[in-house]
């Protein structure tokens, strides 16, 4: 028995791929979207291609977002949840010296891309009284000197809050997933004292698995501080 159809952006690695594996074990059918088709194809083969649709997606491209949802409906007939997870980091240098082109790409991906995913998916999610999950960040809940990345994640926090109010009374749920440091390909060097991507995947599954009358608004999850 499958539990529904879950769409994940940024699904080719890190938190997205770990969530795909966890959701597959729980019985979800999956729509996996990312820029890297090769990685998506390998992941689909691992999870069982009969239960997985892969879509090449640049989240800043509206046509690709709409096409992704059309393919999902053609393949599975419905959409029950979306995990708007695609995101990227910035460049060092703070507001004084960071590469403005890197800012542009990051802001478009982390904010505009999330908005496009929501707009593409919401008509189908309203039909299913579905669930929206967003990858925010602990960086979107605190002050980090010079960090435009943090500012984009503050925006994702705002998107979650504001979307929840827009959808009030529809039966839909909105969950912000807000990780602290996670050891993913996002970093060139593995950070110390970090969460694993599967730890974040587990929080997504927890939120999804709650009964319809329970709306887990936010999960702020950080690694346990190291022993002194």
Automatic annotation (TrEMBL):
- What are the alphabetically sorted keywords of the record? Oxidoreductase
Entry annotated with the keyword DNA damage:
no
Q: Which residues form the Ketoreductase domain?
A: 4-180
Keyword Oxidoreductase listed? yes
**Which Pfam families does the entry link to?**
adh_short
Q: By its UniProt entry, which InterPro entries does this protein fall under?
A: KR_dom, NAD(P)-bd_dom_sf, SDR_fam
Q: Which GO terms describe its molecular function?
A: oxidoreductase activity, acting on the CH-OH group of donors, NAD or NADP as acceptor
- Name the family: Belongs to the short-chain dehydrogenases/reductases (SDR) family.
Protein's UniProt name: Ketoreductase domain-containing protein
Species of provenance: marine sediment metagenome
- Source taxonomy: unclassified sequences, metagenomes, ecological metagenomes
């Amino acid at each position: 028995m499958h539990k529904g159809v879950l769409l994940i952006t940024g699904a080719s690695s890190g938190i997205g791929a770990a969530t795909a594996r966890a959701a597959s074990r729980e019985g979800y059918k999956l729509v996996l979207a990312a820029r890297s088709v090769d990685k998506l194809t390998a992941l689909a083969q691992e999870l069982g291609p009969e239960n997985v649709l892969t879509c090449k997606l640049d989240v800043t491209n509206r046509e690709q977002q709409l096409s992704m949802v059309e393919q999902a409906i053609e393949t599975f007939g419905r959409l029950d949840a979306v995990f708007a997870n695609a995101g990227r980091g910035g460049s060092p240098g703070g507001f004084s010296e960071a590469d403005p082109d890197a800012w542009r790409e990051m802001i478009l991906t982390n904010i505009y891309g999330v908005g496009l995913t929501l707009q593409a998916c919401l008509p189908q999610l309203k039909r299913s009284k579905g669930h929206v999950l967003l990858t925010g960040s602990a960086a979107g809940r605190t002050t980090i000197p010079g960090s435009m990345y943090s500012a984009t994640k503050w925006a994702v926090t705002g998107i979650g809050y504001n979307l929840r109010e827009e959808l009030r009374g529809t039966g839909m749920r909105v969950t912000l997933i807000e990780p602290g440091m996670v050891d993913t390909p996002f970093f060139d060097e593995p950070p110390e004292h970090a969460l694993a991507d599967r730890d974040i995947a587990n929080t997504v599954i927890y939120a999804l698995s709650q009964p319809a009358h329970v709306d887990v608004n936010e999960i702020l999850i950080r690694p346990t501080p190291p022993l002194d």
